[in-house]
């Protein structure tokens, strides 16, 4: 039965299909094979994309490694085939397909697009001297953090990442390893998508609370932005302003960093990078909704870095995630753009133990960091107004939770008196335990609010077109943390004369900082005959409002005038090609306000152990201490002021561009920790003045004989005593891409820097405690010196980069020849002789030739060898780095780099001593990017 059923079914199917074959025309499928070649060298292009269209039907494909694109099962008819490839002009060809067909297409190089591909920093054509680093340059550089981008600046060099310590930025500096000049990095402002990254509320400091704090090199308090925390994966473009910024930017002295992140539609992008010290992962995606004119971007990155792969104690782990949205709409010829950003970053370090320096059973260090920020921007553009161009509102709120927990096993070396009083005066004290476990917690909760409103107008007056900008911004900074917390009976370290010079205090007790600023600027341009004049003339007013009037800085207005100008000379024809010359000049004053920690420092505690009577009978042991509390607040502290001027030239000829800038900067009022001296009196009780064998009860201080002592002791105060002079010459030469040399481009940049680091205020120094005066007393005089530890630093370097961009192969290669031609250093001259001295009674006298003869005052004269101030020159340091990037079908990208693939550092002689320099090992890494 079943067999007959299938027989009838097959017969019926045959009749139906036969009927259809006679009633419908026959459709034949065809194949199309397209060979894609470069018109220059006839080589196949393996990264071309093709779109085949007939009516509403579209077919897409990509070329293989032989430059072949294949389509199968195509109906006959007329098609348009669109071939596109980066670096080549688009080709659209019409074909009639009636049979299997083969087609050869030769793509013409797109010279303009090819020339625009830059894998190094390029000097901007803005009025302010700045460098622009785009996405392509960052991708080829393969950075681990924002720090790596500084290699691309004039004067920059490649360095191995050091992500286990705070990364400071130092623009136009040779650099000096001294915290006394951290005001240079503190005075560099970072803006992320137009929002200020404020660090003034960061107070995570453990100095003076532990002998060797585990986070001494980690903390960024009073040092500016920690560049380790900034991931580069989601960045679209960076502009680093080294010169004189617009009046729009304030509370700075060194420069401005403007960071723009990706916005709009983008495919799924993932990045995996590994090098000798770190591993990182990134994933991101951008969405676009054309109908509602909205965009949506989200990304996540993770970094794990170790200074030494075998040491878990020194590590850094960072997580960054961001959600960014944008909405555009029009109403009555007015365009509104609303942008919103939500950012979160954290570290995920667990408790760690120092295997070499700690007691492994107890000692640990734990750090937690959570940072969340929300920002909004509303931009309004008016297309129906000839005067009013735009209106802009920005707001951001940022909250950070920082927590450090350091546990240490403490073992006192001898009988130690516990000095932990929170009140000044005389008091009896306890003895510390011979050993115990101490725990120090540091909790910081800085909150930053940033508000800004600005508007732009356009006017024409005579020959001049004016672009006017007016704005105001407000910054609120407050730390709600508990501060440094520990058990007063279990201090975290001891000194020979007692315990710590500080005590716990709550950050939340410190008043908030309110910074209010206004600015106005006119960017004008005029065309006079064949000359073009450009200028930006503006001023910024800054003030800290709502402060206690005891401060000199309180509610006082500080004005920063700034001007940048450029003169575009008429073009001159040389060999039938235009030569363009632009000359620029600028001058500006820049003001940087102190941080919360500098305005409200912790109090200084000085404990004098007047009596330490340690009897064999614990019931008779007696200790007596006198405590002084000194307020280290400098009510006369003022903002830092930097005076900067520069001149520049920009020469363009036949796609060759040369820029040269000479600059001079002087900062005379940098924040500097300076030793101040107070004379303290106390009693020193003689423990031998009573008979230990006859006492029957616990003695009191009245039972002992004593002598009165008065000595100078130091405490630290933040002053405006730092001085930094920067001068130098920056240059960049960039050539066009040469087709004959596989699209090679040559970029040569470098700089000559000269920096002088010194003090601008007199320095106090006390006589060494090992010296006893004629009365047998210690520390009875303080010398006042005009000279202190000043330093001269100078260097001259050149970076020559050869990069080759082969779009038909999806290949980018570059070699960087980085030569530090010389570096010079010396200590600034010091006479060693004070100009005045202060005695124990607080009287100040001039230091004369008679003073030099006094046996009590002669120790104030400090002897120096002439060799201490000789110039030391280090000769050439040449390094060659190599980078390569290979793209596959616009879907994958593999990159690798090798720094110091070659190194030349000859030995040299210094003071008749041969200095042998070692060749550093190459540093390399690679990364993989996937686009879906």
From TrEMBL:
Entry annotated with the keyword Glycosyltransferase: no
Record bears the keyword Signal: yes
Top-rank lineage group of the source organism: Bacteria
Domain TonB-dependent receptor plug: 127-255
Residue ranges constituting the TonB-dependent receptor-like beta-barrel domain according to the UniProt record: 323-742
Pfam families named in the record: Plug, TonB_dep_Rec_b-barrel
Compartmental location: Cell outer membrane
Entry-linked Gene3D superfamilies: TonB-dependent receptor, plug domain
UniProt keywords, alphabetically: Membrane, Receptor, Signal, TonB box
Protein family membership: Belongs to the TonB-dependent receptor family.
Protein name in UniProt: TonB-dependent receptor domain-containing protein
Natural source organism: Pseudopedobacter beijingensis
